[in-house]
Design brief:
three-stranded mixed sheet; mainly beta; 3 helices
Length: 230
């Protein structure tokens, strides 16, 4: 019996590590996803997800020939977590708020942000979803129309980046952003050198620093975890 059990199944049976990694951004299948918390301080919208699933529908309790239909779900990413099976396997999940949806008289899909569903089933694999955008109805702030997004970042088997990229900094795609992570910004691999600075130059330097003390610098960009680098 043990010979028929694959190593992959043994790894899954042990369960994941108790410590998980959380991300505020994730790049996969040409889409850049953000959590709603991170998106709140950005000008772009990247937290919307859509998922298509095939389900069986019974006409009644005695129906022996259930009908298979394709159901579309719409939601927003609340959290991004990575499950680590002790170095053997890693799986990234989106924790989402799913919204009640319907179609208007023209057949356009729409959702209600104040009506949530499937609260006991918030998780989905990142590979299962596509991205969508929500456009607020001018007459009802809880009512949002849904538009499907097109992949903006295409990768060629992980070897190079496609040139068909819109407003995307390639250098930010090479690193991983982890929440609650301490990063040492001091180089410790260099020798200690002592420099003698004349007192006159020191006064000039302080004057320059005081001129720029009221200047603030900021950026909306943060590095997202890129699944293609694994």
């Amino acid at each position: 019996m043990d010979e028929k059990v694959t190593e992959w199944l043994k790894v899954l049976s042990r369960g994941p590590n108790d410590v998980v990694r959380r991300y505020s951004g994730y790049v996969i299948n040409g889409y850049r996803f953000h959590t709603t918390n991170r998106e709140a301080r950005l000008k772009t919208q990247n937290s919307g997800v859509t998922l298509e699933a095939v389900t069986q529908v019974l006409r009644n309790a005695k129906d022996e020939n259930p009908k298979k239909i394709c159901v579309t779900y719409y939601g927003a990413i609340k959290d991004i977590i990575e499950l680590d099976y002790y170095g053997h396997e890693k799986y990234v999940l989106f924790k989402c708020d799913w919204f009640v949806d319907e179609k208007d008289k023209y057949g356009s899909p729409l959702v209600y942000f104040n009506k949530k569903c499937y609260k006991n089933d918030p998780f989905v694999l990142t590979s299962q979803v596509q991205q969508c955008f929500f456009i607020e109805d001018p007459l009802n702030k809880n009512k949002h129309y849904v538009l499907n997004a097109l992949p903006r970042e295409s990768f060629d088997m992980g070897e190079s980046l496609s040139t068909d990229v819109q407003e995307y900094d390639i250098s930010t795609n090479l690193n991983t952003l982890r929440d609650d992570c301490e990063v040492d910004l001091v180089r410790k691999d260099l020798p200690d050198d002592i420099f003698e600075i004349p007192l006159s130059e020191l006064h000039n330097q302080k004057a320059i620093e005081s001129d720029h003390s009221d200047t603030s610098y900021g950026s909306d960009d943060e590095t997202d975890y890129d699944s293609s680098t694994d």
